[in-house]
What we know:
The structure holds two protein chains of two kinds.
Chain A: H1 3-24, H2 28-48, H3 52-74, H4 89-112, H5 127-135, H6 139-160, H7 166-178
Chain B: H1 8-28, H2 32-56, H3 68-98
Helix pairs in contact in B: 1-2, 2-3
Amino acid sequence: xxxxxxxxxxxxxxxxxxxxxxxxxxxxxxxxxxxxxxxxxxxxxxxxxxxxxxxxxxxxxxxxxxxxxxxxxxxxxxxxxxxxxxxxxxxxxxxxxxxxxxxxxxxxxxxxxxxxxxxxxxxxxxxxxxxxxxxxxxxxxxxxxxxxxxxxxxxxxxxxxxxxxxxxxxxxxxxxxxx
Amino acid sequence: xxxxxxxxxxxxxxxxxxxxxxxxxxxxxxxxxxxxxxxxxxxxxxxxxxxxxxxxxxxxxxxxxxxxxxxxxxxxxxxxxxxxxxxxxxxxxxxxxxxxxxxxxxxxxxx
Lengths: 179, 111
Protein backbone atom coordinates (compact mmCIF):
# COMPACT_ATOMS: atom_id res chain seq x y z
CA UNK A 1 0.00 0.00 0.00
CA UNK A 2 1.42 3.32 -1.10
CA UNK A 3 1.89 6.28 1.19
CA UNK A 4 -0.62 8.32 -0.82
CA UNK A 5 -3.29 5.67 -0.19
CA UNK A 6 -2.62 5.84 3.55
CA UNK A 7 -2.77 9.64 3.47
CA UNK A 8 -6.05 9.64 1.56
CA UNK A 9 -7.54 7.07 3.95
CA UNK A 10 -6.43 9.22 6.91
CA UNK A 11 -8.07 12.28 5.35
CA UNK A 12 -11.30 10.32 4.77
CA UNK A 13 -11.37 9.18 8.40
CA UNK A 14 -10.52 12.63 9.81
CA UNK A 15 -13.01 14.43 7.59
CA UNK A 16 -15.82 11.95 8.16
CA UNK A 17 -15.43 11.90 11.94
CA UNK A 18 -15.13 15.69 12.12
CA UNK A 19 -18.20 16.15 9.90
CA UNK A 20 -20.15 13.79 12.18
CA UNK A 21 -19.31 15.91 15.22
CA UNK A 22 -20.06 19.10 13.30
CA UNK A 23 -23.55 17.81 12.61
CA UNK A 24 -24.32 16.13 15.94
CA UNK A 25 -22.31 17.70 18.75
CA UNK A 26 -24.69 19.60 21.03
CA UNK A 27 -22.02 22.15 21.99
CA UNK A 28 -21.77 24.60 19.09
CA UNK A 29 -18.19 25.53 20.06
CA UNK A 30 -16.97 21.94 19.73
CA UNK A 31 -18.94 21.60 16.48
CA UNK A 32 -17.13 24.67 15.11
CA UNK A 33 -13.75 23.30 16.18
CA UNK A 34 -14.42 19.91 14.60
CA UNK A 35 -15.35 21.76 11.42
CA UNK A 36 -11.63 22.61 11.27
CA UNK A 37 -10.96 18.86 10.95
CA UNK A 38 -13.27 18.55 7.96
CA UNK A 39 -11.82 21.58 6.21
CA UNK A 40 -8.22 20.46 6.79
CA UNK A 41 -9.11 16.97 5.54
CA UNK A 42 -10.55 18.46 2.34
CA UNK A 43 -7.37 20.54 1.95
CA UNK A 44 -5.33 17.34 2.30
CA UNK A 45 -7.45 15.64 -0.35
CA UNK A 46 -6.90 18.63 -2.67
CA UNK A 47 -3.18 18.06 -2.18
CA UNK A 48 -3.52 14.34 -2.86
CA UNK A 49 -5.40 15.15 -6.07
CA UNK A 50 -2.60 17.42 -7.30
CA UNK A 51 -4.43 20.70 -6.68
CA UNK A 52 -1.68 22.49 -4.78
CA UNK A 53 -3.01 26.02 -5.26
CA UNK A 54 -6.48 25.01 -4.08
CA UNK A 55 -5.07 23.23 -1.03
CA UNK A 56 -3.28 26.42 -0.02
CA UNK A 57 -6.36 28.54 -0.77
CA UNK A 58 -8.53 26.19 1.28
CA UNK A 59 -6.20 26.45 4.26
CA UNK A 60 -5.81 30.23 4.04
CA UNK A 61 -9.40 31.25 3.24
CA UNK A 62 -11.42 28.56 5.01
CA UNK A 63 -9.31 27.54 7.98
CA UNK A 64 -7.73 30.94 8.47
CA UNK A 65 -10.61 33.23 7.59
CA UNK A 66 -14.06 31.70 7.65
CA UNK A 67 -13.41 29.68 10.80
CA UNK A 68 -12.31 32.79 12.67
CA UNK A 69 -15.60 34.38 11.64
CA UNK A 70 -17.53 31.30 12.80
CA UNK A 71 -15.70 31.14 16.14
CA UNK A 72 -16.43 34.84 16.61
CA UNK A 73 -20.13 34.26 15.95
CA UNK A 74 -20.17 31.24 18.29
CA UNK A 75 -19.59 33.65 21.17
CA UNK A 76 -23.12 34.94 20.62
CA UNK A 77 -24.70 31.53 21.20
CA UNK A 78 -26.33 31.11 24.57
CA UNK A 79 -25.65 28.46 27.23
CA UNK A 80 -23.55 26.27 24.97
CA UNK A 81 -22.20 24.19 27.84
CA UNK A 82 -25.57 23.12 29.21
CA UNK A 83 -26.69 20.86 26.38
CA UNK A 84 -26.08 17.10 26.44
CA UNK A 85 -25.53 14.62 23.60
CA UNK A 86 -28.79 13.52 21.95
CA UNK A 87 -30.77 15.72 24.30
CA UNK A 88 -32.74 16.99 21.32
CA UNK A 89 -32.57 13.68 19.45
CA UNK A 90 -36.15 14.07 18.27
CA UNK A 91 -35.20 17.23 16.40
CA UNK A 92 -32.58 15.27 14.46
CA UNK A 93 -34.86 12.47 13.29
CA UNK A 94 -36.37 13.96 10.12
CA UNK A 95 -33.18 15.74 8.92
CA UNK A 96 -31.15 12.57 9.49
CA UNK A 97 -33.75 10.55 7.60
CA UNK A 98 -33.69 12.98 4.67
CA UNK A 99 -29.89 13.00 4.61
CA UNK A 100 -29.72 9.19 4.84
CA UNK A 101 -32.11 8.80 1.91
CA UNK A 102 -30.11 11.32 -0.16
CA UNK A 103 -26.86 9.59 0.78
CA UNK A 104 -28.10 6.08 0.00
CA UNK A 105 -29.61 7.07 -3.33
CA UNK A 106 -26.56 8.97 -4.53
CA UNK A 107 -24.15 6.24 -3.37
CA UNK A 108 -26.20 3.74 -5.35
CA UNK A 109 -25.96 5.95 -8.45
CA UNK A 110 -22.23 6.53 -7.91
CA UNK A 111 -21.43 2.84 -7.58
CA UNK A 112 -23.62 1.84 -10.52
CA UNK A 113 -21.69 4.08 -12.93
CA UNK A 114 -18.67 2.89 -14.86
CA UNK A 115 -15.51 4.65 -13.60
CA UNK A 116 -13.00 2.43 -15.39
CA UNK A 117 -11.47 5.33 -17.33
CA UNK A 118 -9.89 6.88 -14.25
CA UNK A 119 -6.34 8.16 -14.64
CA UNK A 120 -3.66 9.00 -12.09
CA UNK A 121 -3.46 12.57 -10.84
CA UNK A 122 -0.37 14.40 -12.06
CA UNK A 123 1.65 16.57 -9.72
CA UNK A 124 2.64 19.56 -11.82
CA UNK A 125 2.14 22.96 -10.16
CA UNK A 126 -1.31 24.24 -11.08
CA UNK A 127 -1.02 27.95 -10.26
CA UNK A 128 0.29 28.90 -13.73
CA UNK A 129 -2.50 27.09 -15.57
CA UNK A 130 -5.12 28.50 -13.20
CA UNK A 131 -3.81 32.02 -13.68
CA UNK A 132 -4.03 31.70 -17.46
CA UNK A 133 -7.52 30.25 -17.21
CA UNK A 134 -8.67 33.14 -15.01
CA UNK A 135 -7.63 35.71 -17.63
CA UNK A 136 -8.57 33.49 -20.56
CA UNK A 137 -11.84 31.56 -20.83
CA UNK A 138 -12.93 32.49 -17.30
CA UNK A 139 -12.18 36.22 -17.42
CA UNK A 140 -15.85 37.22 -17.49
CA UNK A 141 -16.76 34.86 -14.64
CA UNK A 142 -13.82 36.19 -12.68
CA UNK A 143 -15.10 39.75 -13.11
CA UNK A 144 -18.57 38.67 -12.00
CA UNK A 145 -17.08 37.11 -8.86
CA UNK A 146 -15.15 40.31 -8.17
CA UNK A 147 -18.34 42.38 -8.46
CA UNK A 148 -20.25 39.94 -6.24
CA UNK A 149 -17.44 40.03 -3.66
CA UNK A 150 -17.41 43.83 -3.60
CA UNK A 151 -21.18 44.23 -3.40
CA UNK A 152 -21.39 41.44 -0.79
CA UNK A 153 -18.81 43.14 1.41
CA UNK A 154 -20.49 46.54 1.08
CA UNK A 155 -23.84 44.92 1.88
CA UNK A 156 -22.34 43.17 4.90
CA UNK A 157 -21.00 46.45 6.24
CA UNK A 158 -24.36 48.17 5.73
CA UNK A 159 -26.26 45.33 7.40
CA UNK A 160 -23.90 45.03 10.34
CA UNK A 161 -23.56 48.65 11.36
CA UNK A 162 -25.90 49.95 14.05
CA UNK A 163 -29.26 51.19 12.86
CA UNK A 164 -29.24 54.84 11.90
CA UNK A 165 -31.69 57.15 13.57
CA UNK A 166 -34.67 57.55 11.27
CA UNK A 167 -34.72 61.27 12.10
CA UNK A 168 -31.25 61.72 10.69
CA UNK A 169 -32.18 59.90 7.48
CA UNK A 170 -35.21 62.18 7.09
CA UNK A 171 -33.03 65.24 7.62
CA UNK A 172 -30.56 63.98 5.03
CA UNK A 173 -33.36 63.36 2.54
CA UNK A 174 -34.76 66.86 3.09
CA UNK A 175 -31.35 68.42 2.59
CA UNK A 176 -30.90 66.40 -0.62
CA UNK A 177 -34.30 67.63 -1.82
CA UNK A 178 -33.31 71.26 -1.24
CA UNK A 179 -30.09 70.96 -3.26
CA UNK B 1 -7.21 -0.69 0.03
CA UNK B 2 -4.36 -0.37 -2.46
CA UNK B 3 -5.08 2.20 -5.15
CA UNK B 4 -7.42 4.19 -2.94
CA UNK B 5 -5.75 7.48 -3.90
CA UNK B 6 -6.70 6.98 -7.56
CA UNK B 7 -10.12 5.40 -6.95
CA UNK B 8 -12.62 8.09 -7.98
CA UNK B 9 -15.79 6.71 -6.27
CA UNK B 10 -14.03 6.88 -2.89
CA UNK B 11 -13.70 10.65 -3.26
CA UNK B 12 -17.26 10.98 -4.53
CA UNK B 13 -18.67 9.02 -1.58
CA UNK B 14 -16.58 11.00 0.90
CA UNK B 15 -17.84 14.24 -0.65
CA UNK B 16 -21.37 12.86 -0.40
CA UNK B 17 -20.75 12.07 3.28
CA UNK B 18 -19.68 15.67 3.91
CA UNK B 19 -22.76 16.87 2.02
CA UNK B 20 -25.10 14.64 4.04
CA UNK B 21 -23.67 15.70 7.41
CA UNK B 22 -23.88 19.30 6.24
CA UNK B 23 -27.50 18.76 5.29
CA UNK B 24 -28.25 17.35 8.74
CA UNK B 25 -26.54 20.31 10.42
CA UNK B 26 -28.31 22.84 8.21
CA UNK B 27 -31.74 21.30 8.80
CA UNK B 28 -31.52 20.31 12.46
CA UNK B 29 -29.46 22.97 14.21
CA UNK B 30 -31.35 25.81 15.83
CA UNK B 31 -28.47 28.24 16.10
CA UNK B 32 -27.99 30.35 12.96
CA UNK B 33 -24.26 29.76 13.10
CA UNK B 34 -24.82 25.98 13.20
CA UNK B 35 -26.92 26.23 10.03
CA UNK B 36 -24.12 28.25 8.46
CA UNK B 37 -21.54 25.57 9.37
CA UNK B 38 -23.73 22.95 7.71
CA UNK B 39 -23.86 25.03 4.53
CA UNK B 40 -20.06 25.32 4.58
CA UNK B 41 -19.76 21.53 4.84
CA UNK B 42 -22.10 21.09 1.86
CA UNK B 43 -20.09 23.59 -0.21
CA UNK B 44 -16.88 21.74 0.65
CA UNK B 45 -18.34 18.43 -0.46
CA UNK B 46 -19.41 19.90 -3.80
CA UNK B 47 -16.02 21.57 -4.36
CA UNK B 48 -14.18 18.33 -3.64
CA UNK B 49 -16.22 16.61 -6.37
CA UNK B 50 -15.04 19.12 -8.99
CA UNK B 51 -11.37 18.61 -8.10
CA UNK B 52 -11.71 14.82 -7.98
CA UNK B 53 -13.25 14.73 -11.45
CA UNK B 54 -10.60 17.10 -12.79
CA UNK B 55 -7.74 15.02 -11.39
CA UNK B 56 -8.98 11.51 -12.12
CA UNK B 57 -10.97 11.86 -15.34
CA UNK B 58 -8.34 13.45 -17.56
CA UNK B 59 -9.13 13.19 -21.24
CA UNK B 60 -12.86 12.92 -20.56
CA UNK B 61 -13.26 16.64 -19.82
CA UNK B 62 -13.00 18.92 -22.85
CA UNK B 63 -9.88 21.17 -22.85
CA UNK B 64 -8.73 19.87 -19.49
CA UNK B 65 -5.51 21.88 -19.61
CA UNK B 66 -7.59 24.86 -18.43
CA UNK B 67 -8.26 23.04 -15.12
CA UNK B 68 -12.00 23.74 -15.17
CA UNK B 69 -12.59 21.79 -11.96
CA UNK B 70 -9.99 23.73 -10.00
CA UNK B 71 -11.40 27.07 -11.21
CA UNK B 72 -14.90 26.03 -10.15
CA UNK B 73 -13.65 25.05 -6.70
CA UNK B 74 -11.80 28.34 -6.38
CA UNK B 75 -14.99 30.25 -7.19
CA UNK B 76 -16.85 28.15 -4.62
CA UNK B 77 -14.25 29.05 -1.97
CA UNK B 78 -14.47 32.77 -2.82
CA UNK B 79 -18.29 32.74 -2.77
CA UNK B 80 -18.17 30.93 0.58
CA UNK B 81 -15.99 33.74 1.90
CA UNK B 82 -18.57 36.32 0.75
CA UNK B 83 -21.29 34.21 2.32
CA UNK B 84 -19.38 34.14 5.60
CA UNK B 85 -19.13 37.92 5.63
CA UNK B 86 -22.85 38.43 4.92
CA UNK B 87 -23.84 35.69 7.38
CA UNK B 88 -21.79 37.27 10.15
CA UNK B 89 -23.38 40.64 9.40
CA UNK B 90 -26.88 39.14 9.61
CA UNK B 91 -26.01 37.27 12.81
CA UNK B 92 -24.68 40.47 14.36
CA UNK B 93 -27.82 42.35 13.35
CA UNK B 94 -30.20 39.67 14.64
CA UNK B 95 -28.23 39.40 17.87
CA UNK B 96 -28.32 43.16 18.25
CA UNK B 97 -32.11 43.28 17.94
CA UNK B 98 -33.17 40.22 19.92
CA UNK B 99 -30.16 39.05 21.99
CA UNK B 100 -30.19 35.54 20.49
CA UNK B 101 -29.15 33.88 17.24
CA UNK B 102 -31.64 31.05 17.60
CA UNK B 103 -33.14 30.76 14.10
CA UNK B 104 -36.45 29.47 15.48
CA UNK B 105 -37.00 32.68 17.41
CA UNK B 106 -36.39 35.03 14.50
CA UNK B 107 -39.92 34.49 13.26
CA UNK B 108 -41.14 38.02 12.80
CA UNK B 109 -42.05 37.39 9.15
CA UNK B 110 -43.98 34.20 9.87
CA UNK B 111 -47.46 34.36 8.39
